[in-house]
Amino acid sequence: MSKATEAKRTPTTEEPEQDSLLPGRESIRRSHEDRARHRHKTTKHRERLGVQAQIGGTPTEDLLTGRVVRSDGQYYIVDIDDSGELRTKTSKRTIAAEPNATLVTIGDRVRVEPHPESVALIAEVLPRTTKLLRRASGRSDAFAQVIVANIDTLVIVTSILEPPLSTGIIDRYIVAGLDGGMAIAIVFNKIDLLKTKAGKEVLDEYLGIYRSIGYQCFAASAEKASTLDPLREFLIGKTSVFAGHSGVGKTSLVNTLRGDEAERIGVLSKKYRRGAHTTSRSVLLKLGDVSGTYIVDTPGVREFANHEIDPENLKFFFEEFLRFSDECAIPNCSHLHEPDCAVIAAVEESAISVERYANYEKLYQEAKAQDKKLREKS
Ligand SMILES: Nc1nc2c(ncn2[C@@H]2O[C@H](COP(=O)(O)OP(=O)(O)OP(=O)(O)O)[C@@H](O)[C@H]2O)c(=O)[nH]1
Ligand SMILES: [Mg+2]
Ligand SMILES: [Zn+2]
User: Fold this and answer.
1) How many A from CA of 131 to the centre of ligand 3?
2) What is the pLDDT of residue 185?
3) Secondary structure percentages of the chain, helix, strand, coil, to 5
4) Ligand 1 atom with the shortest distance to the CA of 220
5) Digit-coded pLDDT (tens) for 295-309
6) 0.90 exceeded by pTM
7) How far, in Å, from the CA of 301 to the mean position of ligand 3?
8) Ligand 1 pocket, 265 CB below 6 A?
């Protein structure tokens, strides 16, 4: 698709477009994933029989290993270890470790079967060490949309004013990041827009809340490279993903950090001062010449729903609760309605952020509702 067509296209559903949700590709993906489930079973069976030296008829020593760095929906560009990029695609023989999830995503480690005259085939998607999951819209509830895999740190990008800050989405991402095995960092971008004392106080308040929990937080402006030094320092040696609402400046930050304008940035809508979903596909980029430092820029979301969080475990993802929960009167307290709850007392004394607690209540209700739906189906 040309850049011009891409710029005109507007998302047709409530959810912004994601790599795996492009209109017209959904049905292809579904059949793909059905096949993946079947393949998974077959692989397990073959493993039990001890047939492991070959994948789909190709001796495993002939396969190349690499990482998926971008995709156009049809092909996946794989950075082959030590030897550059290769255009690849999946086939009905592609083996995936996770049956009920996105078959291939950015950051995946894959084993590739090269083809001298044609596009190489992804023979196997290797198990994911970490992953960022999102509830897939319009899919069965059990299906996991994997936004990105094998990432060290989830960098949640927000802005205070334009678009307005939402702790709701920050907390949803924190839960998804911790659940997926990632470390968490938060960037408050566009601090150049905070011209008033009140604006700066809001920034300080949120920096305070999230820093006191233990998350790395950065006040930044993509328009002023010098403000990004602490963030750049933090990213060194890691593979990070930038995620958040559309228009908060994820791509602008990536461009300023990399010192180029390679990735396209958008304009905010005049009326709502929100983003226009400019980035439509995730891409894994190298940060300068610093070895082992990568950033995945992702498409901005309008909203973010968590995938299958056990409601009774949700409290553990609100890590500051753990400082108080030993004092709760009831063992295994959910901190929602129990008497003599030390977490609720801490909220009342402002030792825990009221907003964070309200987000916990909301996410608990959501997780409970999803859990009920899943139980009814099984
Ligand atoms: N004033 C100011 N504007 C910024 C800053 N960062 C980004 N912008 C502007 O915000 C708008 C959106 O920036 P993008 O980088 O496209 O935002 P994004 O988060 O990548 O958006 P999506 O790709 O839609 O998810 C652009 O007009 C940028 O110029 C900043 O630090 N300060
Ligand atoms: Mg972008
Ligand atoms: Zn409690």
Assistant:
1) 30
2) 98
3) 35, 25, 40
4) 31
5) 999 999 888 999 989
6) no
7) 33
8) yes
**What's the gap in Å between 213 CA and the centre of ligand 1?**
27
| Residue pLDDT, tens place only, 112-138 | 999 888 899 999 999 999 999 998 776
Report the amino acid identity of residue 3: K
- In angstroms, the CA 143 to CA 141 distance is 6
Tell which residue, 101, 154, 150, 109, has the closest CA to residue 298: 154
The CA distance from 377 to 141, in Å, is: 9
d(CA 176, CA 322) in angstroms, rounded, equals: 18
* Beta-bridge partner residues of 101: 144
Closest residue CA from atom 3 of ligand 1? 190
- The residue with greater pLDDT, 232 or 373, is 232
Q: How far, in Å, is the centroid of ligand 2 from the Cα of 280? A: 8
Nearest ligand atom owner, CA of 323: 3
pLDDT tens, residue by residue, 74-87: 899 999 987 899 99
The residues, ordered by sequence, that sit 6+ positions from 140 with a Cβ below 8 Å of its Cβ are none
Sheet arrangement for strand 294-297: 216-219, 183-189, 153-159, 239-243, 294-297, 283-286
CB of 222 closer than 6 A to ligand 1?
A: yes
Q: Which ligand 1 atom is nearest residue 242's CA?
A: 19
Task: Give the pLDDT band of residue 320 (cuts 50, 70, 90).
Answer: very high
Binding site membership of 249 for ligand 1 (Cβ less than 6 Å): yes
135 lines ligand 1 (CB under 6 A): no
pLDDT digits (tens, 9 = 90+) for 194-235: 999 999 999 999 999 999 999 999 999 999 999 999 999 999
Q: Are 319 and 213 in contact (CB under 8 A)?
A: yes
Judged by its nearest atom, the ligand closest to the C-alpha of residue 326 is 3
Distance 335 CA to ligand 3 centre (A): 4
Helices 167-179 & 354-377 angle (0-180, nearest 10): 60
Tell me if residue 23 falls in helix, strand or coil.
coil
